[in-house]
Amino acid sequence: SSLFVFPHKVILKTCGTTTTLAGIAPLQDAVAQYVGYPRDKQPWRVFYSRKSFMFPERQVHPHTSWADEVAFLDAHYDNGTAYIIGNVNADHWYLYATRPQYFDPELRLPVNGVDLRSNVKLNDQTLEILMTDLSPVHASQFFTERLPTVSDGTDSMASSVSSLGAEADDSDPGHVLGNVVTKSTGIDQIYPTEQQIVDSFCFSPCGYSCNGLVKEGYYFTIHVTPERHCSYASFETNVPPSHYGMNDLDVLDKVVEIFRPGKFSVTLFDSEDNSLLTKKMPIHLASYKRTEKISYELDGYNLVFLSFEANR
Amino acid sequence: STDAFEGPEKLLEIWYAPSKDLLAGGLKSPKGLRAIPRTRWEEVLDHVHCKVLSVVQTEEMDAYVLSE
Question: Which of A3, A35, A60, B33 has fewest C-beta within 10 Å?
Fold first, then answer.
C-alpha cells in the first residue's frame, strides 16, 4: 500500500482487508487542524476507484460491496457520481468521482460564485494497469526464498536518494530485499532515468511494494501479490512518458513484460487529449488480445478503459 | 518484514485545490497538506489498518510505503 502527500492533494492506495474509506473522517480532521481547510467544506475533487472484488466476504464494511462504498462516499461528498466500467460478469472497474467545486480567490476555499478552473491548467494524467493471473515464473521473482540472504540494511537506495536530494527512512531489511527485486525485475528501468528514487519493500514470505519518485513531483507505484491462487499486480503512474522519450504504449509493454499477466486492464485519466493510448486504443499487444474498449468524457478528463487477455 | 498481502487495491485521491500553488501559499501552512505531521498521518492510517514502513520526502511530495 502507498500514501502520497502533495501540498494540495493526497493519494491513498491500499489493498487486502484495509479500510481505505475509514480514513476520510480523520483526514478531514487533520486537514482542518493543520491546513485550516474547514471540515464542512467539500474538497475540490475526489476520485475513488477499485478493481472488481476478489474476496468481498473477507472485507470490512463499507468495503463489502460497491453499493456500500458508494453510500459511504455519498455521505461525505455532495456531488459524486458512481460508474461501473467494463463487463460486469467478468473484468470490470469501479469509479466514484466528484465534480469540481468553485473557489474564492481570496480564501482559496470552495464557495459558490468564482470558478478558477479556467485559470488552472491541470495537465494531469494517471495511468493504471491492474494485472491478474501472473505467469508463475514471473511471479516467483517476488518470493523472498529466492532472494539472497541480507545481513545489513545498506544498499544502493542511499545513492539514488541523493540524486533527488530526498530523505529516506529505510532501516528495515525488507527494503534491502526490495531493492534487489527492483533491480532484478527491471522495475528501476521502466523509466530510463538516474534521477529517480525507488523506495521498495519485499514482504516475507512474498509480496512487494514500491514507490518510485522522479523529478518534478511525478511518481509511480507498484504492488504485487504473487501467490498463485490470487496473483495480482498493480502499476500506477502520473509520469508523462514523453519526458523520457516514450509513450504510454512503451510503458505498458515494459510493465506487462515484468509480470506477464493472464489478464490485465488499463485505465488512463488524461486532462489532455494527446495520449497514444487514447488515440490508438490498440487491438493487439504482443501475445495479448484486447477484450474491452471503453471511452468516457468526464468533467475535465478523458477516461480510457481497456482490458486484455493473453493468447495462451 | 510484514506478512504477505492479497487482493485488489482501493485508490482514494482527494484534491483540496487544483494546483499546489492555490493551497500551499494561502492558508495556515506554506506547505498545505504536507504540514500535517507524520504522527498525524499514522493516526489516520490506523483507521485504514495500515502502518508506515518508510517515507521518502522530495521537494514536491512525501511518499509513504505502507504495510498490507
Answer: A60
